[in-house]
Amino acid sequence: MKEKNRCEWCKKGNHDIYIRYHDEEWGSPLFDDQLLFEFLVLESFQAGLSWLTVLRKRENFRKAFANFDALKVSKFNKQKFEQLMNDAGIIRNKLKIEAAINNAKCYIKIKKEFGSFAKYVWSFTNGKTIVNQYNNSSEYKSKTEVSDAMSNDMGKRGFKFRGSTICYAFMQATGIVDDHEQNCFRKKELQLIRKKIKI
Question: How many angstroms separate the CA atoms of 87 and 23, rounded?
Fold first, then answer.
């Protein structure tokens, strides 16, 4: 059976978890608020580290952060914070843990204002996926004018750990941007998915 063509980045180190994430999640258009909040938190924890590190700890993060129920996370108290700081299963970074709790509160405010978090994050591209035409991962951008706009607006709304690079990685992960390489098998799959849901 012929090996599928994939984006270069997911083949580095030949990690199954990376390949599975690429094949099943990365770039798929997401409109589920809880999943969007999950990616927002995970991308903020990834800052300065590898995404592989975060993926390996993802299940631990889900347990630690109440399956990314933002309402529950927004109510985490000092005792819960200390518990997270002592949880070896996650990335124990004081500022990032504080940011996750803070961002849950900001997320809830946005849901009330826009009706859903999905409506808010997709508003930066007018509800359309930005489809880039890259041949290899060396052509990828780390941020764009759109991620700058998202980052600036989130900053005004009180979000922490929401720089433009983090926002762009979030957009790539959740299908607001499609950065799959031209010869990657997912490029065509995602094109068909977007047609079905009329993005």
Answer: 30
